[in-house]
Design a protein that fits this description.
By secondary structure, the protein is mainly α. It has 2 domains: 228 residues, Citrate Synthase, domain 1 (Orthogonal Bundle), CATH 1.10.580.10; 98 residues, Cytochrome P450-Terp, domain 2 (Cytochrome p450-Terp, domain 2). The chain contains 16 helices and 3 strands. Strands 1-2-3 form a 3-stranded antiparallel sheet. A hairpin with a 4-residue loop joins strand 1 and strand 2. The longest helix is centred in the middle third of the chain and has 26 residues. It is globular and about 70 Å long.
Length: 371
Amino acid sequence: MTDTDIKKGLAGVVVDYTAVSKVNPETNSLLYRGYPVQELAANCSFEQVAYLLWYGELPTDAELAEFERVERGQRALGDNVKAVIDLIPTTAHPMDVIRTAVSAIGASDPDADLATVASSLNKAARLYAQLPAIVAYDQRRRRGEDLVPPRKDLGYSENFLWMTFEEVPDQVVVDAFTVSMILYAEHSFNASTFTARVITSTLSDLYSAVVGGIGALKGPLHGGANEAVMHAFDEIGTADRAEAWLDDALANKRKIMGFGHRVYKNGDSRVPTMKAALDTLAEHYNRPDMLELYETLEQAMGSRKNIKPNLDYPSGPAYNLMGFDTLTFTPLFVASRIVGWTAHIMEQAASNALIRPLSAYNGPDERHLPG
Ligand SMILES: CC(=O)SCCNC(=O)CCNC(=O)[C@H](O)C(C)(C)COP(=O)(O)OP(=O)(O)OC[C@H]1O[C@@H](n2cnc3c(N)ncnc32)[C@H](O)[C@@H]1OP(=O)(O)O
Ligand SMILES: O=C([O-])CC(=O)C(=O)O
């Protein structure tokens, strides 16, 4: 075994097939079940995309109506889940709250260990329906606000925003939110999805795999970057300070959050769509200063390092403009990625092989206890 045999971070290693999505850095494209994500973002609801990712085809009108009926019927936060959340101090990171809430849902499911396709689809649908209530309630309780019950007359995005802010914002805001949910839903074997697949590969249950995925997503090298982008914007303040801030950060060997990607080396296929949504929001809220800072930092990062933004870069400021607290950004990613994770969990279960790579030992040579 030589150093070149070791693929640190599994970089460049193809570990399995997937039919869920195709990330193609050569053409800078992303397909969900064959459809370009940009087409889906421009034409579909989040409900349609969730159905597509789970079932492999877009729903007919009748299938969509039934799918929406089931989702709307399961939106309300269960009393037991609310009680668990209320036990967690508001000083905890919201990702820890989401992780615990999902664990509580799993622990109260008598069929948690049942892994038939129908049972897994039901569990996935329940988590997808419940996560907005969990995310919205956690943000509200941190602000000292009461829980807002869901409304069955609203679509997924409108209801999510309603439960968070107790009002449905203008359509441009709802549309930008839907675009973000669609773009975040799925991205092949990223770290959190792979984590979920590893857990599934041991024949563990779907909830355990999702909880593991949430843990992996929390880190700032993955989903936690959308939150970290906003912290950086807060640190920088105004566009005129961006270049000096960046030079200082790079001199101190800091990673610039929201830039770079393991697979895309020429830009993230989702960024132009999310940037267009951010542009709309900046106009709607009359915040040209946010765009100026965004573009100045992007250009400076391009000229210093030739590293391009990833999806977390436009999403962070977009969620800020929508009114979400910075700590809620990564939980929003969870609410969307639950769809991708569970699609992969089901795919892994249907064609399973225990995931267990090898390691090269570089510890002490064999030795023995004295005597
Ligand atoms: C939705 C998502 O999860 S997208 C990813 C979100 N994560 C972030 O935005 C965090 C910031 N970005 C990063 O840390 C990285 O780009 C990653 C983790 C996303 C990808 O990392 P890798 O594929 O392992 O690339 P790696 O870290 O080896 O980067 C290659 C070089 O570019 C540099 N680089 C890459 N990204 C950045 C960055 N954001 N800031 C500064 N330098 C960077 C690295 O330091 C490295 O330089 P070196 O060769 O001089 O050591
Ligand atoms: O693919 C990755 O490594 C990270 C990413 O962009 C995602 O999960 O959306």
